[in-house]
Amino acid sequence: MTPIHEDEHLLVLEKPSGLLSVPGRGPDKQDCLSKRVQDRFPEALIVHRLDQDTSGLLLMARGIEAQRRLSKLFETRQVKKRYVAVVAGLPEQTQSATSPDEGGWRTIDGPILLDWERRPLHIIHADGKASRSRWRTLETSTSASLIELEPVTGRTHQLRVHLQSIGHPMLGDSLYAPPDIKALSPRLLLHAQELAFVHPFTDLALDFKAPVSWSATSPYSTARS
Fold it and tell me: Is the pTM of this model over 0.90?
């Protein structure tokens, strides 16, 4: 797997939908982005993950010290992450009582908890971990919306759970969308399109983008990613 950026401390890659970030359980789940990268860069280590069905930008460290410094950036929310998704319906109408900020962003707050009896599903629950996502509309049709998202926290399935919790699941989502919404796309329409941070060794500001040509109107997406 060829990085879109590499230096002596880190690698930036674009993960396709359907590929695990790290190995799963069982011999049939060993193929993953981290293994493919380590075949070429044996010192490469995972810093964060994307869901198997999510495509987009993913960062890996080259060595233990780089992993420590990059992980600290994520832990202290110094990494800007932006996603794009196509969701069912018009979330602006659902959240019309919530005023957007100057940039058009609205916020979803909802504590997220693993549903042990139905894992890997996660749910909004009072006993869950505090979670916050920001979103804004890019394009709408009568039945779907193309939106941009920023996860403020980093819970498992956070963006998918939050949009499902307000009644707007993502198209193609095999876990959180009802069958008719899942069937609208052959893949989950969620893509990590931007990563920005200050390089932890050089202090250089880095901003990586991997845009997709998705639409709020059927057929919704292109073949890319």
Answer: yes
